[in-house]
Design brief:
Low-confidence stretches of chain A: 158-196, 609-620
Oligomer: homodimer
Shape of chain A: globular
Largest interface: A-B, 142 and 143 residues
Structural class of chain A: alpha/beta
Distance between the termini of chain A: 50 Å
Number of strands of chain A: 17
Number of helices of chain A: 23
Helix content of chain A: 40-55%
Radius of gyration of chain A: 26 Å
Strand content of chain A: 5-15%
Strand order of the largest sheet of chain A: 10-11-12-13-14-15-16-17
């Protein structure tokens, strides 16, 4: 697969410069649109749409990337300029220069410092909204002169909410109707506040990012030894993020494949990628992935530690684990999953569960505790672990080793007991300057999902929540990505900050790259649905643009604005393959005589007072 | 595709007899399971699982079906025995014998009559739970002697809730833990009541079914001229149902294809099917579908009426429409979508919408009103329409012609204004004895979905709600089935009674039979997730059985209990194709050394006091 295969049609890479740090250039994708054409031959331009782009240099058609050389080291000058890190004794990777001042985004935020990473995040989260606002405003300073679509866009840019239709302001509609409608509209922000505790600000500033990181409500996973990473934030007051898992196992897969999976995952929109390799060449696989990844990379170091023991849990020890953790931290891993909340006393409670312990990391540590009759060393050595993590700004994702593996086990005692300990560990990690998030379930029926979110926010002091799905049923193997998207959208709407994707091969086999695509796009859909629901100020712009293109039969624009343009086009072509059909003012679903969109356009013409449509009245 | 292709592996058709009406035999599918095998060589049997079956005689391997002859006329004797219908003057179909006593399930229910249809529904909704309960109870009358899995099953059968683990009752666990857990458990029923207004009874009786139908909270679509139908109920206190749309259009498709789509749709689990044909041979296509369908068939008669006018909306009239409606009612259509709530005065409000009117039926009637400057004849002729419908027990699905076609238009004035009129029409139809449901959106962001459900329940007097999705975003063409499942699960949890499927070809092209499969299974997943969340007493049995099979590495059982066994098996085989892998105590995701399930089984053995596992302690 070469670079050309992973470009979006009708799109180009743009870079938005910083203000505090003019040197930073925030990567975005801009989707161009064709003009709206009207029956009288007139046209109206449609502003390009800027979307979040996770593909890094790989997604920039004008840059060449070399797998062997790795990506440019974007953050190197930022890290160096802070003068708080040094090369390690062996001349190897960077680490903290002073024990009392860890080089973590959290520590900087607590000292009131805005880092380039924070400004990068602020610009990125606005999705170029500021630019778009300015462009329209400059072009049409007088409200009256603005084309209708642009005014609508401007209203949305300004408030983050759909523009109240101009219609409401006209005089010929009953006050009762307007009250009813306005009532509903004005209800939205209150709804957000009450149901989701999840308001997004109307505009992202670097200060806002800093304050969220300082409060622990957000993290920016960015190891000082992973300068290739393009900064991103995980937190419930930001866009909902998604993670894709890759990694070889003893059964299948190889290194090239894994890097291809990485590229494919970030092309489709994965915000972070976890390398869950368990087979041979763990270190080397990870090195290739890190050097070629513009997104944060997470791992579960326990897998590597166990590999070092030849897979024999008995031989596992704190010393081996610590060495593994340090190795990964030095290498540049941005966050690690540690099942430190799984305590010895919880294990007996899992015995009569329907599905026991289903977390790999959790079951390894549980078995170790059983064999050694000792407390979980991840828990007992937590402070030292945090010290290691802080020295490299590795974030910790406190794992949920006792997550339910079936509907029958959802929200049971072992699960919730571990969550409480995750909260305690969160506080302790924060004190050491470590950035933290908490992992969550798992298999949970819909009505028990809000409980998970509520307790996590309460017990873990609003640290970001990062869930696997959740899956709202056990009976859908082959379709678990869809179940995961249902549960994921629901919990993200209520404040879950990142969703770990579930592929359709879950419970059945290893995902291939087509499964990765399907899963990433599916979870992007779920995350985006949640972003709309939690009122992210820029989320709806793309929906509005796509719907306008759809209504105006601009098929190419409709495809290009989609989450998966290739698939949209392919499905359209299956029924109407001729290129002329891309300009047809109908589609295959209803045919030309029954087209609701076409009839509706006729209606619009009939009611419109615009001169260009009056000639068409005879045809409605 | 022959009959053999549409059988489920490891399954057989069973028939459960009625009690009030011993002659009725309710069709179900029973999935057999293999024994659980333990390390000491002992075994434990696993009860077969009964699941809802929509495939009718087509799904009974022991019955032969002939497309040309149609299905057996199951309900013929029931209808005849009521002695309230006569053959029409031309010797054709049946119709009401007396004007004051329409032969509708609603009218019977209001008179206190329990029909065979109602008892059929009651038995069907219990999913054979009564039988399963009895079998276990008879086999192991003494609680102590019951195998653990069976006791758990029994507890669930009795209460509809997951059994509290035996573990909680043991003494060596802290009271605080137990309080926390019990608190959570006991919270469930209250949660249902408050959040969903949607409690399911712990057991379905024919009386309950009758009362729900009488109250208008449920309907049993069953035209007296569609005796082939196996009765089913649509209502929020029952299992959530799904509808699949089929139908040829001017662009593609043919009759044989449509019947195949019907068979495929009901094989995968569609509870009703709508024939939305708009091309030639509308009547004949419908005839083939009706005579071969064990599920209720719905239509949008406006499409046929317009076809009669050569596609010219100008020529449309009440007379033409009435004749079409009567033709379809006589033919046996079980429910019809009528866009009667779309009033003339609402149309101008749609002009400045982002996507105008996107309903085909809605745009046809809107255009007619515009051309004729007259009120919607479906509204003005409502009483006569209801009279026609009541004479054949055709249920009405009051359409939402102004449903939002984009996120920008969600919950706007035209949509809600029409919903209010739907409520008025509901009451008037009920007075005529007609069974009613209301159609709902469409494109709605997640945070506005509850509002839709709440207003529909309030304004339409708790008549069943039947939604198209809703889709929580516009940007996912190619994945709209997944968006629809997200919105669908959410609204079904809150009381939506039936979900109309959305295929991945939505907005792009016509679905083929593989798209139908994908969409039906996806919406089954969503509906099932909602059933779990609203506490349907039998919904979780299948999840529990599948999870137990998964935990015990009974791969074949795991596949067979899935919504789509073929796909589950196919995905498994892609990574581990050898038949030996079906018995392996690990899978491809983690490999033998990292298997959480296996480690967890070892843990269980270590903690268990059962003799058969004590010998394994050395191996954990």
């Amino acid at each position: 697969m070469d670079k050309q295969d992973m470009q979006y049609p009708g799109s180009r890479r743009i870079y938005v410069p910083g203000k505090l740090y003019p040197g930073i250039r925030v990567a975005m994708r801009e989707i161009s649109q064709s003009d709206s054409l009207f029956p009288d031959g007139s046209a109206e331009s449609n502003a390009p749409v800027r979307v979040y782009d996770t593909s890094g240099p790989w997604g920039d058609a004008e840059r060449s990337c070399d797998l062997q050389k790795g990506l440019p080291r974007l953050r190197e000058p930022w890290i160096a300029s802070r003068e708080d890190v040094k090369q390690e004794n062996d001349g190897g990777p960077l680490c903290a220069a002073r024990e009392d001042a860890p080089p973590t985004q959290r520590a900087y935020a607590l000292r009131g410092i805005i880092t380039p990473e924070m400004e990068y995040v602020a610009i990125r989260e606005n999705l170029g909204r500021e630019e778009a606002f300015k462009a329209i405003y400059d072009q049409f300073p007088d409200r009256k002169s603005r084309p209708e679509g642009m005014q609508m866009l401007l209203d949305e840019l300004g408030t983050g909410m759909p523009a109240p239709s101009e219609l409401e302001k006209e005089e010929d509609f009953s006050p009762a109707s307007l009250v009813a409608r306005n009532d509903l509209r004005q209800g939205h922000p209150a709804t957000f506040a009450k149901e989701t505790q999840n308001n997004c600000p109307s505009f992202y500033t670097p200060e806002f990012v800093r304050d969220e990181v300082a409060a622990g409500r957000a993290l920016i996973p960015a190891n000082i030894n992973h300068p290739e990473v393009e900064p991103m934030a995980i937190g419930r007051h930001f866009l909902c993020k998604i993670n894709a898992n890759i990694g070889n196992s003893a059964i299948a897969s190889n290194i090239e494949n894994e890097v291809l999976k990485l590229r494919r995952a970030i092309h489709w929109g994965a915000d972070t990628v976890m390398d869950l390799s368990t087979g041979e060449n763990i270190h080397q696989t990870r090195e290739w992935i890190l050097r070629n990844s513009p997104v944060p990379i997470g791992t579960v170091p326990m897998y590597h530690a166990l590999e070092r023991c030849g897979g024999d849990v008995r031989k596992l020890s704190w010393d081996i684990f610590r060495d593994t953790l340090i190795e990964q931290a030095r290498q540049g891993v941005d966050y690690v999953t540690l099942h430190a909340g799984l305590l010895q006393r919880f294990v007996p409670f899992t015995v009569k569960r329907a599905t026991g312990i289903v977390s790999r990391g959790g079951s390894i540590i549980a078995k170790w505790m059983l064999l050694h009759s000792e407390e979980n060393f991840l828990y007992t050595q937590w402070d030292e672990i945090c010290h290691i993590l802080a020295s490299y700004d590795v974030a910790v994702s406190i794992g949920d080793g006792l997550r339910p593996g079936s509907i029958a086990d959802a929200n049971d005692f072992p699960q919730l007991a571990e969550l409480e300990v995750q909260g305690e560990l969160t506080r302790r990690a924060w004190k050491r300057g470590v950035q933290v998030m908490n992992e969550g379930p798992g298999h949970v029926p819909l009505h028990l999902i809000p409980e998970n979110m509520r307790r996590q926010l309460e017990w873990c002091y609003e640290a970001p929540f990062y869930t696997l799905g959740p899956l709202p049923t056990d009976i859908a193997p082959g379709y678990d990505h869809i179940g995961g998207a249902i549960g994921g959208a629901l919990i993200a709407q209520r404040g879950c900050a990142m969703l770990c994707y579930v592929t359709r091969k879950e419970h059945l086999g290893l995902p291939d790259s087509e499964d990765v695509r399907e899963a990433v796009v599916t979870f992007k859909l779920a995350a985006h649905a949640a972003d709309l629901a939690k009122g992210h100020p820029a989320a709806q712009l793309r929906d509005n643009a796509l719907s306008k293109a759809r209504f105006e039969f601009r098929w190419e624009d409709q495809f290009n604005l989609s989450l998966d343009p290739q698939k949209a086009r392919e499905y359209h072509d299956l029924t109407l393959p001729h290129s002329g059909a891309k300009k047809a003012h109908f589609c295959s679903m209803c045919g030309p005589d029954f087209c609701a969109m076409k009839l509706s356009t006729d209606l619009r013409a009939a009611f419109s007072s615009r001169p260009r449509t009056s000639t068409d009245n005879a045809n409605v």
